Queue: 2 jobs
Job 1
Amino acid sequence: MAVAQSIRCSHCGAPVEFKPGEIIATCKYCGFTTVIQTGEAFTFEHSLLLNSYSPEQMENLVKDWMRSGFMKPPDLAKKSKITEKNLVYLPFWVVNVEASTTYKGIFERIAPPIVKEGEIKKEYNWLVLARQAAGFPTRAYDVPLAGKIPYDFRRIEGFAKLLNSEMERTQAIEIAKQQIDAHHRFLLQQDIDKVVEATTTVNIKQMVYLHAPVWFIKYEYKGNSYQIIVDGAVGMVLKGDIPAFKF
Ligand SMILES: [Zn+2]
């Protein structure tokens, strides 16, 4: 485990802890957000999605999830034991962007093949997790942005953990661009079979730094451990491990 360091919050003077790799830190005493390297105030909109579940309600939600669907062992809810329920506010960059990909390619589904050109043009609130660690299903996460409020440290539960950003705005834009380009290259396969050229341009309209509540649940079933990740704002299961079983 990396050793935490700290700076003084330039707003209230309290110590603000951060770990190596973190570059934007939020004070847990006053909610002020600072760029660690310069000690200066963070100047982008900082938003928060509220968590709607108590630990008990989250346990009930998980048990309901275990009882539903065909693909799960019938005794899953009865025989499993929830061993961990951690609420974590994860940092995201939400990139509001207009993206357009112009392409040229070959349509081979008819004979003789023909050359086709086209454009994919879309607007997104593209979500980039502001942490280097992988493993979080951001593409499965349809962030309920309508519920966001200005960041308010008083709404963060005492038992919850708040993670800082390990990523600057420019890096988040770069990642969003790459992912949107890859997504559009996937979409254009509906129209052409072989890409000759494809160019994606993006127009960034707005960037929001957002903390969103995510529950990391662990449960045991027949001696093995499994994980479930649940969005804490609307209760959507983003990822859930299901034990293998035979009918
Ligand atoms: Zn402070």
Note: The pocket of zinc ion is lined by residues 9, 11-12, 14, 27, 29-30, 32 (CB under 6 Å).
Job 2
Amino acid sequence: MTYREIVEREATESKTLPVVAERFRGISGRKVLLFSHDDPDGVVTASMAARLLKRCGAAEVEVHLPPTFDLEPNEVREALSGRSFDLLISLDKGTSSKADELIALVPDVIVIDHHYQQGEIQKALVYNPCVQNDRPYCSCSYLLHILSSLLGRTSPADDCDALVGLKADWVIDPTIGNWGAEEFVRPFVEEMAERYPGLFRKTPGATLFDVTQRKESVVLSKIAQAYFAVSGGGFQYFFPVPSLNGGQPPRVLLEALLSLDKKASRLPEVDSPQDFFSLFENGDIFRECLAAFEQEWRRVTKLLEIATPLVELNGSQVLIFFSDRLRLLPLVGGLVLETLLAREGKENGLLIMINREEHGIHFSLRANCDRIHVGKFCGTLAQRLVDLFGHPDQITGGGHIRAGECRTRRSGAPYFEVLRVFFQLVEDLVRCDRGEAETTADPALIEILGPERISPAANNGKESRK
Ligand SMILES: [Mn+2]
């Protein structure tokens, strides 16, 4: 399939994309309030949407990039501050039934997103082919590119934004030849590689995206890493560099991207990250943030050397690390885990990073095997904390089998009490692993101990567990 064919297939098979396109065609003279995720994919998508709306004749496009993921009616009310808008667009911020509540505030609501769906959406117009048409994983930037292609209004800046979003959301990894799913993303990436060969050029030195090897990268990954460094990556990891000039970092990136449109015709000649940054009026932002990012990366790598063996669970070595307001922690932690385990002479394990934040405590877990489901660990920890302290809106936890997060945010839960709950959970797991009666009756604990059971409790127990 060609990219053009994929765009046409979306227009035919999606029930909502043609309606979204119709709304954009009729946007002339209208006022649009736009909310997007503050991570690199969210910011590039916001830049693409703002450009597209302007080209379609929108009278006003006001962009908001708040630090929280879910779009709450309160945030919209605050942004409106008594003014009226014709259309609200939510980008890369989840596909949630909350979107229906927003219609009371702005008459027309469009959600464009690639995350999984939470609840039923009745009134808001949603384009999320990953949910609605079961398409493979992609980025929100890619969906915006499909929309602007359908409208016949793409520019080189859109091509570049779409590629960076795909890279930053881990959809593609050109360094190792991963160009995305055959029948959805790949034809687009192939077309782009022909048009902008310099973006796919190999360059020495790894980025945060190069997790399977640390020798080299491609220009596109270096650009995505720079966007991460400027925007804070959706984690609000902001660096105090002079060129940010006290501005809100995701917004500083957005404004830089919008200014790129003027010089984007030079994109096909770009051959190196330096070349690329020189296209911006203020390329120093990227150079300074990237330097601060790389320095912090080295510092965090060094600090993680003190991670300490805590206990062995289901044949998996648990390491623990405490820190205070450290940036980049889970990203670096995931990368150094193997080295830390090798030092302990262990093959399988997980790293628990406990970081005090500006507000609350952040638990990040990274594993290199499937023996402890760390996402479920974080989910159970959050549940126990909510049972004790309330604030289910602030205390959240979850993730995948090898990567999980739990944050207490502004719940006000005291550090000592949170740690007590955490260590109680670890103790319960140790006892469950040994097969002690009361604990093995708790399905949450059994689920955390994972599908790959090797402990005596699983092998010699009277009843076998699935
Ligand atoms: Mn995204």
Note: Confidence is low (pLDDT under 50) at residues 458-466.
